[in-house]
Amino acid sequence: MRVLAAMSGGVDSAVAAARAVDAGHEVVGVHLALSRGATPAGGARARGCCTVEDAGDARRAADVLGIPFYVWDLSERFAADVVDDFTAEYAAGRTPNPCVRCNERVKFAALLDRALALGFDALATGHYARLEPDAAGGPPTLHRARDAAKDQSYVLAVVPPHRLARALLPLGDAPAKADVRAEAAGRGLAVADKPDSHDICFVPDGDARAWLAQRVPSRPGLVRDEEGAVLGEHDGVTGLTVGQRRGLRVGRPAADGRPRYVLSLSVVTGDVVVGPAERLDRTVVTGGPPTWTGPPAAVGDRLGAQLRAHGAEAACTVTAADPLEVVLDAPVRGVAPGQTLALYDGTRVVGSATVEAAR
Q1: 24 exposure class (CB count in 10 Å sphere: 0-12, 13-18, 19+)
Q2: Which residue among the candidates 49, 50, 99, 102 is catalytic per the annotation?
Q3: CATH number for 22
Q4: Is 1 labelled a binding residue?
Q5: Is residue 49 annotated as a catalytic residue, yes or no?
């Protein structure tokens, strides 16, 4: 097959490209220029990805592998579908996951579409997830990675089956990240010891709240308890999220001395309601129209629900399929609108939906 390998400049995508070469595919490497001006002032290395330095790292890896390499500018698409979406969601009082949006709208949409138009058969990425053949001969099904600590199936749960059918995920069976680094070193790849990126790639210094404050008009408001009593003031709800504890300017401590958390916020009134941690517990989660990555769920199905990229899976029952609603066996704390609800049947990803409400 002709395979386009997305190379971020990190160790995972470099080893994924190498494994695609080993499998006998005709591989071409591509680095996505997504965020212009992503390098912080003073020459310090950016904390995210897709910087000029990362493009250089990707090119050097491609040279070692002996494959052609290109840089494609998808910054306009990324700005519209990921950065602007992130800003708008927070401005609306929601909590988005930009990595989910990037996979949904850029990597497995804009990038994959361009690859197919140029005659490639598949897109290879360094995601830790597995694609398994469908017993009935349909599109492959998405599964958790062998390495549970690095599993990234959650951020791929928004990708529909016809796009997953054109994906290659060579790292899905890797036992551990240490093995991938050792493999990279054995192949002579200089990125073998490169640190992982844990930040939002378009927020170079990692301070998302400050980044948002520069882009969303601030509207000061009041911090209230659940009875409506005013406890303090805030500069604006942008950057705040359900479950947040730090950064709240509460004028007086709770009567019991326990910390307070954001329970809800309103961009209409500007009010932020705070309370004890247990008031964040939610057992019913409602999502928007679902994306099924394989056979869809049905009412009554017993599945696992994951609500954060690195969150634990919680047992649940599907009570509505479209829009999606699930009832959790045990409360999950701090579920916020805008998050992604991913459903699992064992290791198989069933589908996902954007959280609209939780109670």
Answers
A1: exposed
A2: 102
A3: 3.40.50.620
A4: no
A5: no
